[in-house]
Fold these 2 entries.
Entry 1:
Amino acid sequence: MSHEAAAHQGHHPALAHHFDSLAQQTEATTLGMWVFLVTEVLFFGGLFATYMIYRSWYPDAFAVASHELDVVLGTTNTVVLITSSLTMALAVHAAQLGQRKLLMTFLILTMILGGVFLGIKSVEYYHKFVEHHIPGPGFQFEKEYFRHAQIFFSLYFVMTGLHAIHMIIGIGIMLVMLWWSWNGTITAEYSSPIEISGLYWHFVDIVWIFLFPLLYLIGRHAH
Amino acid sequence: MSSHILPKRVYYTIFAILLFCTYLTVQIAFFDLGALNTVAALSIATFKATIVVLFFMHVKYSTRLTWAVVLGSVFWLGILLALTMSDYLTRVWRTYG
């Protein structure tokens, strides 16, 4: 960096030399993150399309199988994740104002809430193992829906599993952001790393906003 | 650096609306509305996603290019879901011949 700094005297150390200004650089990073999120939307979109097809084929089996999920734990996790989105938004706010301590506090809170979400999720997975609701040779379910309930649970594990992997990656990103906040890389002028990490975190929240009603809440009234 | 720094109040308001919508979607799920159950659940989820995108993700205050990319993702997701279902849902129509 030292030769760059010499070549661009008076420039912000975080400004890459191919950008005119930090504002332009932030615009480009935001756009780049959004382009990545489009690919993520379509990545999850394939699974949602699969869900739509099978649910339109086997609506009864899906309703009965969905009823086996714990709606209290699911709702709790929804609240936990929405709260983590709030702390993430507040972290971005603190970063934009250069409030380093507050920023670090909110990043840690976001990570803790992400951890709570994953903890509750693993409790749910454990229940499913105990109840033999894992698709495969050990699967047990009422005879009428035996085959098609396995499709529901396959989708449940793949969709929530992929979502959980995104959460784990998100917590990893937050760890790096915490490190960058700690060592002074993040400033009021250069808060875009926090902003685009926030975009990722909110995206993962949005995926859950759709997963929750589609997996936990179908056929609640009927059975 | 963003040109727009939103007041914290905005985030708290959005948070409260998101919590209320979560409560609403769970309550509605326990009433039998027939096909409307799914419509209600997806409408509420779409509304929640929209306010997250607009305010938490600052798209409301982003450049037009960002808007285009965000709307593009919705559009292509729409193609994926609509064309897939236009095939699967119309297969039962094949009764002639």
Note: Chain B has a mean pLDDT of 91.
Entry 2:
Amino acid sequence: MRRFGGPRMKFGILQFPGSCDEIDALHAARRVADAELLWHGDSDLKGADAIVVPGGFSYGDYLRAGAIARFSPVMESVIEFANAGGPVLGICNGFQVLCEARLLPGALLPNANLRFTFRQVALDVVDGETAFTSACVKGARLSIPAKHSWGRYYANEDTLARMRARGQVVLRYARGENFNGSSDDIAGVRNERGNVFGLMPHPEHAVDELSGSTDGLCLFASMRRTVEDRAACA
Amino acid sequence: MPDSATLPGLEDALALGLTAAEYGLICEKQGDAVGRAPNQVELAMYSLLWSEHCAYKHSKKLLRTLPTEGPHVVMGPGENAGAVDVGDGIVCAFKVESHNHPSAVEPFQGAATGVGGILRDIFAIGARPAAVLDSLRFGEPFDGDDAQRGARSRYLLERAVAGIGHYGNSIGVPTIGGELYFEAPYEQNCLVNAMALGFAERDRLVTSAAVGVGNAVVLFGASTGRDGIGGASVLASAELGADDDKRPTVQVGDPFEEKKLMECSLELLQRGLIVSLQDLGAAGLTSSASEMASKGEVGIDIDVAKVPLREPDMEPFEIMVSESQERMLCVVEPPDVDAVLELCRKWEVGGAAIGAVTDTGAMRIFSGERLVGEMPVRALVDDCPLYDLEPVKPTRTPYPAPKALLSQNIPPSQTLLALLSCPNIASRRPLFEQYDAIVQSRTVRRPEQADAAVLAIRPLGTHARAADGGEVLDGAIPAVAVSIDCNGRRVAADPYTGTVAAVLECASNLACAGAAPLGTTNNLNFANPEKPHIAWQLTEAVRGLGDACRALGAPIVGGNVSLYNESAPPHGPIYPTPVIGMVGALPDARHAGRLGFARAGDAVAIVGPFAPSLLASELAKLCGGELPDGLPAIDVPAVAAAQAAIRDAVRAGAISSAHDIAEGGLAVALAECCLGGGIGARVRVEAGFFGAEAARATGRGEIWSGTSPAAAATLFGEGSGAFVVSGGEDALRALAQRTTVRIVGTVGGETLLIDTGADEAAIELELGELRHAHGALAGLFA
């Protein structure tokens, strides 16, 4: 059990063969808390309080983005962790993995332009009170880079309607920024319970002034707040 | 003894690209060593190591004239990559390499494996690859008369860009910059050059020299197949015929395999498990093993039966010459072999001990117990004859005049829009948006933010952390800036001056970012050097390269040569294209420069010894101008002084923006500064503003762009060493102590207005019009 003034909360960052942004996520998480890498072949989460499934091309993504990674030993533990209410953030390939693992609704399809596209995008915070956005302001506009080939979020109309009704749409591309053709301009979604969240843009690449934006930091700060609030209440 | 029943003969040697004299020499060497002519395995290995690609037989003598030493050089030419000291015990490794001929045959895989190859060169010396840049040349993408010709160039471009992105994006190395030109002479011979750089702790660098008789030789990475057999001799060292079906000799890349190979290699080095390391590139095992043996002055035995194969029944010579990608060779002390193979298993890459270091001075190839080839290392690697070039300046240029696409008499505003939208100047955004420019968290300046890309040496955020964790320190963030450039048309007009200009252009780009040159890499892309006028281009270009690098204190730390880039008439030779890559140091990334105007009210100045000329300019090309015979000489010390002044002002944070004046001249540079900052400017530059310089250099007086020849040269003329700078007027005036400064206007508004004196508003264009023109390449990727 953690208390304020006790040891800092710890992020666990998954590392698959083919992960590319895991070190970036590690450095980003360390700006607000402790963080360590978790090897794909090891099912031990090493006491992490929150999990980040990072970007990249896990196992080469040759079958379908994220399709193989969901079966790795570490993901079995992450699924257990999520089912027990632990906070899990999936970024880009990590979002794809969480959808493949059915921890999040919907799927990611090839971009509408059928090309890998890298672009700094503006995101609107639809809900500023989730476990992942509580340190952001509702309605705030975040400048965060996106870079992917398979980033077109898709869910069928019934699912979308249900997600909207339950407040599962957390981030949307601002007007004119939805370059990949995502349904309903959705950039980031959470599960029903609210402890699993995935987004295609890369908040870990918007945590330093020199990169042009620090708007991604609030997502990591929100996760820390969530963990610490829970510890304080427990 | 090797089986000598059916020895190949002269005909086989010729088919493998050797000359009769070279074959004779090889027979002599083999006769002395083993008492007979070379067998199949040996001849295959000689033909590769004695190819132009491996032996540099037409360029080595010239390359020896280049400056390769300097205070920052840690590793010079001859290793897998060069390296310069960037302070704090860290080195920056970098190199550029070509993959031209494979890309002309199969552009996606050709470009992808080009990136894979250059990345392996970086981690082969123990550095973690941190960035890729690319340099591309294609034929004209829009060819009014012949839709099909343009279509082929567009196809090559699209697939090459996709291949570069596929590899770089998937492996987690950012592509942070590059350059692209379209010119008719590249139509049959496109150029795909890739540059990579990486960082390493200085005392962790590793060389490729095999050492320690009795040590094991371990091959790790992908298995070996029949792909790319003979690539070095067949593809890289001969002219491409129009109807050759060479697709089977193009290698196929797998970035996931390379990602694992890279992590495995770096962990092997970090744990001190290997003695020396070498990547397998052109000529596969043959070249890697022989060069490791040569550098270590030892022999190596290899048993091809121990090489993990992708397909059964491969002949020993096929295993030795296969160019299957994503493989490395290392030398390991026997007690460490198990640990090395264990680490290979962790990273899920194949690994096998396939041989040993010996004291025989020979490369000996076994297939199980059977000796199938034996060659003295020295004969293989060092004894290939080097040829003298026979340079003769041609009496007239071999390049036909480009098609005239623009009338010479349209108003300057229209001329500017035409230039902004022409393929060589239009925004490269449609390309660089296909590349991940930010992975690894070092990128401080992305494409189109500054003239050079800027990378922090340590990932962003790791500097700001004190040793006890968490406390933010307010210290400088050391960085490097990197640029790659070459305008082949200018080199074709004047190989010496054009090459000097290419080197200066890189240094100017670095200066605008605030960086000083540390070292240079180059890729000499030329046509057939056995032809006297091509030999002349090559000789003059290398002379210019050496002179410029010496003048700037930016020695050559590595490079590559790609010759025979030409096709039978009517296509002919490519423009001579000595691609220059330069790395510079920037003490604090927080002061990295920007190219875009930043603040309304800032003064605008033209800084540096600007001597604009329309000779070989982009405007001359659009107007169908023939290549001139020679370019105006460049005052290199004056340009270097201007660069130093700009660099220091950027580092001091004294100015708001800096952008060098290049293709399209002053008007295009001003437009780019406006677009970069999203703000307009009002500028007055009188025709003949640059006095005798412009008048003398105008050359083709008939280009007058609706005003006058002098005004056209002022607005659109090109020349080295001038910059558009914005900032406070006092700061700009202070630069005058070190270089020429002309305050010409003010930043502000939504319009670019250029007044030439004679013509109150020679150019008046809204930002939206500029942006629309500049976005012309979007259609190529629609």
Note: The mean pLDDT of chain B is 91.
